[in-house]
Amino acid sequence: MIRIAVLGCGRIGAMHAYNISAHPRATLAAVFDINAAAATTVAAKTGAKVLDSVAAVLADATVDAVLIATATDTHADILEACIAAGKPVLCEKPIDLSLARVNACAAKIAGSSVPIQLGFVRRFDPGHRAVRTAIATGDIGELHQVTITSRDPGLAPEAYLKVSGGIFRDMTIHDFDMARFILGEEPVEVSATASRLVAPELMAQLGDYDTLTVTMKTASGKQAIITNSRQSVYGYDQRVEALGTKGMAISENRRPHGMTLHTVDFTDRAEPLLNFFIERYREAFDVEIDAFVDAIEKGIAPEVGFEDGRLALVLAEAALKSVAEGRVVRTSEVG
Amino acid sequence: MIRIAVLGCGRIGAMHAYNISAHPRATLAAVFDINAAAATTVAAKTGAKVLDSVAAVLADATVDAVLIATATDTHADILEACIAAGKPVLCEKPIDLSLARVNACAAKIAGSSVPIQLGFVRRFDPGHRAVRTAIATGDIGELHQVTITSRDPGLAPEAYLKVSGGIFRDMTIHDFDMARFILGEEPVEVSATASRLVAPELMAQLGDYDTLTVTMKTASGKQAIITNSRQSVYGYDQRVEALGTKGMAISENRRPHGMTLHTVDFTDRAEPLLNFFIERYREAFDVEIDAFVDAIEKGIAPEVGFEDGRLALVLAEAALKSVAEGRVVRTSEVG
Amino acid sequence: MIRIAVLGCGRIGAMHAYNISAHPRATLAAVFDINAAAATTVAAKTGAKVLDSVAAVLADATVDAVLIATATDTHADILEACIAAGKPVLCEKPIDLSLARVNACAAKIAGSSVPIQLGFVRRFDPGHRAVRTAIATGDIGELHQVTITSRDPGLAPEAYLKVSGGIFRDMTIHDFDMARFILGEEPVEVSATASRLVAPELMAQLGDYDTLTVTMKTASGKQAIITNSRQSVYGYDQRVEALGTKGMAISENRRPHGMTLHTVDFTDRAEPLLNFFIERYREAFDVEIDAFVDAIEKGIAPEVGFEDGRLALVLAEAALKSVAEGRVVRTSEVG
Amino acid sequence: MIRIAVLGCGRIGAMHAYNISAHPRATLAAVFDINAAAATTVAAKTGAKVLDSVAAVLADATVDAVLIATATDTHADILEACIAAGKPVLCEKPIDLSLARVNACAAKIAGSSVPIQLGFVRRFDPGHRAVRTAIATGDIGELHQVTITSRDPGLAPEAYLKVSGGIFRDMTIHDFDMARFILGEEPVEVSATASRLVAPELMAQLGDYDTLTVTMKTASGKQAIITNSRQSVYGYDQRVEALGTKGMAISENRRPHGMTLHTVDFTDRAEPLLNFFIERYREAFDVEIDAFVDAIEKGIAPEVGFEDGRLALVLAEAALKSVAEGRVVRTSEVG
User: Fold this and answer.
1) Rounded to whole angstroms, how far apart are CA atoms A222 and A226?
2) Which residue among C128, C246, C258 places its CB closest to the CB of A252?
3) Chain C CB within 8 Å of residue A29 CB
4) How far is C286 from chain A (nearest CA, A)?
């Protein structure tokens, strides 16, 4: 059993804590949150102990590994401390909102063999993963175009949006990683179109956007297209499509159940989509913990690591520059 | 070009006339209806001549073949006359509401090689036919169960229901033929359950039913299940499903187009089904004429002939007897 | 927290034990199995104690309630003992293979207010339940026809089939309950057609069947149709369809994920269905425990109780008699 | 009856001729093709007369209107001649490959009230049109993003590709019009990404592309995304999706029939998509003729006219410039 401590007991940290607690090959060793009440709540339900600082967690011999789900601006510091302490890390995305900080972090941890896994959970979704597999097995031939539709059911709270780093670093970051995962090679050109349509005034005030299209191209000419919106009222819209020389693979949306209604006015009416990431990526969050435990048990590099986190951020920077300058930006300009 | 005369210019006769008129290997030679105005209307749109009696049609040397779409109680007489005149016939179902009359007709035309095709148009539906093909090619292995869902969008007019011969002979007759087509062998046992739910008073008055389930079994144990209703408000519900040792084939319903709507309340909301047989079986009606022209040109027996019409009626009789007596009826008891 | 003991640690008992262990409002108090090793395995993973007899479980003051997942022939005895001991029971179906024994049990426990819940888990499936809700809310108007397709992915082991009580009591029993649940009123007539197609020799030897169609009718004429097969190679086929005066509701099958493949030979190719009941009814098994805990906490009668188990068995008896006698059987003849 | 002459009897001209011939409110008055044999073939099947020049057609008093389906480089000249002769025109797209020529044509016909309809047939597709209707009726609220997937089943012949004017003017032109149709306002910014993946050598030789993504933005920030490929082996991929504040509408692909196959390896396997435009847009081609006849009969401007043809070409020019210069291009720069 791998004994994992969870740092940060907000919504996603608490979810991870419960998943770890129920995992057949892991136990929840300890929890920490700057808000002690949040940690206590999770501890009460799981039997895990509460520790009162990151340092206490890293000093605890019963902690084999750490999951970082604290505020984004603490990720890099904690990650460096974990590596220094020799504790394998599963770090929620993003590593940091600043590419410079991420690069500095990369320099600091260079040479370490302690496993670092980045929390790009969508790679572990059975449907999206099956698209990747369909490419890997040759089922759709040589890949030509990847289309990622990724829309949140509704605008996040204003307080969150103010510190999110903007849509490209907060939301599209997942899609940049998905594009890299499906493409199997690096995008070298990025072109982005951004609008303020969902909440025009708030977005203008924040200097942010709510509706995006990003097109990327690899050196060999493969294309990846991301469409984002902060509001898809019909649920959390998460689709991945890959076109190749021999066919196409699509990972479709998911609903809470399969009941459809048929009346004089319509047929096939189904439920709205699963509302948000905890429901939609439920299996993926489980498999993510599996993968982390596997990496630790087998001493292998996690499938999705620090550099994946850094490269997704490079794409976000390139996209921001593309919007600002109205032109195609090469990743070499920002990375 | 095969020159075909259409007898009966009601809704279905007129439709056949227009289809023949537009057919690449057929022409509409003549039309007849006891209501001269109906025939004149069709003639005006197609350029076909109007003849004033069945005898005139049969005597006309420019008529190569005849399509019978007159009132049901005239089918058998006209069919006999056509065969006597050596004119190939495409006869709308049923041959007659009386099995005795059909048997007498069979005796009368015995030995003739003039092609007779029965109007079981659904056999020519590309989807249903693909189910049959999936069985014939072995795609689903040995057949075990056939499930036919067949529901009319709404109750026919009372005037029609009074002369229809009842739901088994009028509506289920198509499904009996479909069951035989898909099964590829003869049902020997029939068990039927009938209810009056759509229009209880009218049905009681007519001694008829509006909601049915029929289960049939072949000598080898294969099962076919038909569910019928006189009212499916979401459109004309026409599905065929076949279960075999290696898989299942389903012919799904059809909609006028593929637009789906997704809102805060639902996803995937599609249009109601195509409303009725002329729209739903549009291609099938075309292919039915193709098959008739093929049979005539090549001098071969039509794929669906007189005996198919007779055997479907035998199943209807068995089902009626099953309802009356509350027991399984063997087709040998009525056929 | 409701402290539940699980009796019987075979496949389904062990699953229940893990579900209870992870349940937010329940704990696994104890486990028992006549095979001590089976109980020990479950105990090791959950921290529950192992008790060495049913009597020990019933005498244990830390056991608030009991889940019976032992061999079928012990269900009725244990259930009676639980009621005598005042322990609420969740009993796996069937209560017993003998209707006489079930009736005797009913007489014995008459008058008790200790909650008894029957393990008809499918009632808690979100999709099937949504069909029931669509009827209850009037979305599809007055109900006319219910169609239940229920097929196991493959034949159970011969050893199991020998003691299963036959397909009607073992497999169709779930569908009889589903029919009652969806109909909302009692079937009064039963007509069944049975074949030996999947394993003809074994079935003949066992006096059992592997391919069924059952048609039932309520006093008001509503119809329910069940199609069963012991082998649907494309996965566990579990569909429920309800036709009413205002529309239709369908609970569709479920797949492990939503990836579809499209090539030169086909489009929309999806994964086989979820293979069997533990995967297919995963949420339903959780909700079943919720419902049991609710009933205990609130002191209310469980939604699906002893009489539901008895009435499903009455329908099984009627169906068996129908097959034997080739006729419609009224439930009053057997119940 | 509107008497229509068809100029050009190639694949699409012949199809139009047959459709007009079968149309209830139109007749095929005459046909012309520089290849007399092509015209003769169509005439033989329809009974229309063959004329030996465009001039002869325009001089013929029995010709009420003209459908131009000749080679692209003749469209503008013939269109001008038709307008001069006062004959309403349905002109296949594009008007010309040169925007300068189209602008000159616009100047020449300015002030005429003779109806001109452009052959953007997809506007008449029932599914795509239902997306437009869902917006117009408010069903999906304010529009934010339009996504058009448009892929040909396979590469056109090299001979055609050499004279096609390139993918933007030949293929994407339809999608530019569809984007304008769905958006309901004009794109002002265009950004395009182009690759050579299907036939890299041929495309490099032609200076053309086979795989595209185009992103457009209107003045209000609405976005339209087009993905194109010259090769989708699973059939003719034609989808339109619109996201709005209240929901989403999708026009899905179409298959020849609704049979799906389910085996041990897969479920829901359907036929490849309808292969190409004549099959896929069959109804749309009929409705296009309806609309043309309506415009003539009622003396109203066709729904899709000359300026629509010109504006689609402006978007093509902007997209080409965007690819060449690696930047966002404003339509005002080219239009």
Assistant:
1) 14
2) C258
3) no
4) 15
Nearest alpha-carbon partner for B17 in B34, B3, B25, B5: B5
Q: Across the interface, do C45 and A22 touch by the CB < 8 Å criterion?
A: no
Distance CA A207, CA C316 (A): 68
Q: Is B257 close to D22, i.e. CB distance below 8 A?
A: no
Subunits touching A (CB < 8 Å, at least 3 pairs)?
Answer: B, C, D
What pLDDT score was predicted for residue C335?
79
DSSP state of B137: T
Q: Using 50, 70 and 90 to split pLDDT, how confident is the model at D22?
A: confident
How far apart, in Å, are the Cα atoms of D206 and each of B251, B307, D161, D200, D224? 45, 63, 8, 10, 28
| Helix count and strand count (H, E) for chain C | 13, 14
Question: Could you check whether the bond before residue D94 is cis, i.e. omega within 30 degrees of 0?
Answer: yes
Environment class of D72 (CB within 10 Å of its CB; exposed 0-12, middle 13-18, buried 19+): middle
E strands of chain A, at which residues? 2-7, 26-32, 49-50, 65-68, 89-91, 116-118, 143-151, 187-195, 211-218, 223-229, 237-244, 247-251, 259-263, 329-330
Rounded Cα distance, D125 and D128, in Å: 5
**Six token digits for residue D179:** 């984007």
Place of tokens 């437009």: D132
Count other C-beta atoms under 10 Å from residue A194's C-beta. Answer: 24
Cα torsion A267, A271, A273, A274 to 10°: value is -160
Closest CA to C114 of C147, C79, C146, C154: C79
Kindly state the greatest CA–CA separation across chain C: 67
**Which segments within A22-131 are labelled E, that is strand?**
26-32, 49-50, 65-68, 89-91, 116-118
Say what percent of chain B tops pLDDT 70: 100
D269: contact with C, CB 8 A cutoff: yes
Alpha carbon distance A142, A136 (integer Å): 10
**Given CB atoms, is A126 within the 8 Å cutoff of chain C?**
yes
Q: What gap in Å lies between CA A277 and CA A37, rounded to an integer?
A: 24
Identify residue C167 by its one-letter amino acid code. Answer: I
DSSP state of D274: P
- Grade residue A47 by pLDDT with cuts at 50, 70 and 90: confident
Dmax over CA atoms of chain D, in Å, equals 66
The domain segmentation of chain D, as residue ranges, is: 2-114, 123-276+311-333
Q: Which 183-202 residues of chain C touch chain B by CB within 8 A? A: 189, 191, 193, 195-198, 200
pLDDT digit string, tens, across residues A57-112? 999 999 999 999 999 999 999 999 999 999 999 999 999 999 999 999 999 999 99
Residue-wise pLDDT tens digits, D103-124: 999 999 999 999 999 999 999 9
Architecture of domain A2-114 in CATH? 3-Layer(aba) Sandwich (3.40)
* Overall average pLDDT of the B241-249 stretch: 98
- Bridge-based pairing of strands B143-151 and B223-229 is parallel
Q: Is B245 helix (H, G, I), strand (E, B) or coil?
A: coil
Angstrom distance (rounded) from CA A324 to CA A209:
12
- Using the Cβ of B260 and the Cβ atoms of chain A, whether some distance falls under 8 Å is answered with yes
Residue A240: predicted pLDDT: 98
To test the contact with chain C by mutation, choose from D234, D255, D259 the residue with the greatest count of C C-beta atoms within 10 A, namely D234
Decide if D167 contacts D195 (C-beta within 8 A): no
D112 interface with A at CB cutoff 8 Å: no
Report the chain D residue with the minimal C-alpha distance to residue B124.
Answer: D257
Over residues D290-335, the pLDDT tens digits come to 999 999 999 899 999 999 999 999 999 999 999 999 999 999 999 7
The third-level CATH classification (topology) of the domain covering D123-276+311-333 is Dihydrodipicolinate Reductase; domain 2 (3.30.360)
D134 touches chain B (CB under 8 A): yes
